[in-house]
Specification:
This protein has helices at 4-16, 19-36, 49-54, 60-64, 88-101, 106-124, 136-149, 195-198, 204-230, 249-254, 296-302, 305-309, 332-341, 347-351, 360-382; strands spanning 39-41, 44-46, 154-159, 185-192, 235-239, 259-260, 266-267, 275-282, 320-322, 325-327. The chain is an alpha+beta fold. The mean pLDDT is 89.
């Protein structure tokens, strides 16, 4: 027997997916697009009237710490509460227009809301039992298995770092030792996106696919968190698109899931940048994974595809100093208007050769041959010289 909320949900879906409603929405978008969408010209991207009206006048690059040579915590600049960022009004505009375009299906929206409530509850949930008699290795293997069974595709573990925690926020008290020092691990989870959909970025299917996989990443993280709670440890799962309390990309790189690309996203060995991330914060003592080298960093030095493909010239060929770390950086102020106008964009990551299923194996094979050749050369150099 159907419950009332199921009937209402079914009715809402039928209305939103009906030809009449779809035609009405498309008409509304067409009428309002001159006000809410910018346009590409020979002289560059011209932002929309409403974007200019809502822009706070602040520089996102300055907030992100571009050019700063001292380490500090990052700020949450997007995907947080509207009143926590100068770009809150533009963020709200994006969410409204995304709703009009149907970026997220109503059922996925409800799913996201439900996961957010679970995440909030898990944050304050105490362990459900004393620690179980599992070794460090056994617990690490078990929690990775749970994360994968719940939807995760690749999983790594790293030590939590202060540099990743957003400013004006703190982690739960159990993430610190008795002296107040950070003492926690991150289980980082990667979930693959279907490249058939992601590859058409910035078209709507790519944005819809991203939201779908964010939900899968959150499911995996929360399941791993529940497993840790049941085994006597704190565990708090989190995934995007909400900013949360810490950065995910540097943690993923440190956990061995991939390396930072020139386009500012993670490049994984398995899926390139066609993936989304989630993580579980825990006080459990786990076996840590290390950074990996599969050739992407060397490849990025010479590859210019994402730089050329960016319609607003937001990517740089060279690494830049950001909060005391030299790394690839996406120019926030150039990227943001096009990102907001075009379904969250994603062109740079989708065009990355490592994201393309037919190209990635060739790049990995090429690196493997190069590595083997280097190892053979080193081995020969290490052989003792025979004297007659």
């Amino acid at each position: 027997m159907l419950h009332l909320k199921d009937l209402l949900l079914s009715w809402r879906n039928q209305v939103m997916e009906s030809p009449t409603f779809v035609r009405f929405t498309k008409r509304m978008i067409a009428v309002s697009s001159p006000l809410i969408e910018g346009k590409q010209t020979d002289s560059g991207y011209i932002t929309s009237p409403i974007y200019r009206a809502l822009h706070p006048g602040a520089s996102g690059n300055k907030i992100n710490g571009l050019g700063e040579d001292k380490k500090r915590r990052p700020f949450r600049i997007l995907w947080t509460a509207d009143d926590e960022t100068p770009f809150g009004k533009l963020q709200r505009l994006f969410l409204i227009t995304s709703g009009m375009k149907g970026t997220v299906k109503f059922t996925d929206h409800l799913h996201t809301h439900g996961l957010a409530q679970r995440e909030k509850k898990q944050y304050t949930q105490p362990p459900l039992s004393p620690p179980k008699m599992l070794t460090k290795t056994e617990l690490s293997s078990a929690v990775k298995k749970v994360a994968k069974e719940a939807g995760g595709d690749i999983v790594g573990i790293t030590e939590m770092k202060e540099d990743w925690i957003f400013d004006n926020t703190e982690l739960p008290s159990w993430a610190y030792d008795t002296k107040g020092n950070l003492d926690a691990r991150l289980i980082v989870i990667g979930v693959e996106m279907d490249y058939e959909h992601f590859g058409v970025a910035p078209e709507l299917p790519a944005a819809t696919e991203a939201m779908k996989q964010y939900n899968r990443g959150t499911e995996s993280a929360l399941s791993a968190g529940d497993f840790l709670l049941q085994n006597g440890y704190h565990g708090w799962g989190h995934a995007g698109p909400r900013a949360g309390r810490f950065l995910l990309i540097p943690a993923a790189a440190q956990a061995g899931l991939g390396n930072l690309g020139k386009h500012g996203s993670l490049i994984s060995k398995e899926y390139g940048s066609s993936l989304r991330l989630g993580a579980v914060l825990t006080n459990a003592d786990l076996v840590l994974d290390g950074k990996i080298d599969f050739g992407s960093e060397d490849f990025c030095v010479n590859c210019q595809i994402c730089v050329r493909e960016c319609p607003v010239d937001a990517l740089s060929s060279e690494k830049q100093m950001v909060r005391g770390v030299e790394k690839y950086y996406v120019n926030f102020d150039k990227c943001l208007p096009y990102f907001l106008d075009n379904n969250g964009c994603g062109i740079c990551a989708s065009k990355c050769p490592y994201s393309r299923p037919e190209v990635r194996p060739k790049l990995l094979n090429k690196h493997e041959k190069k590595l083997n050749k280097l190892q053979n050369k080193n081995a020969k150099a290490a052989q003792p010289i025979k004297l007659d």
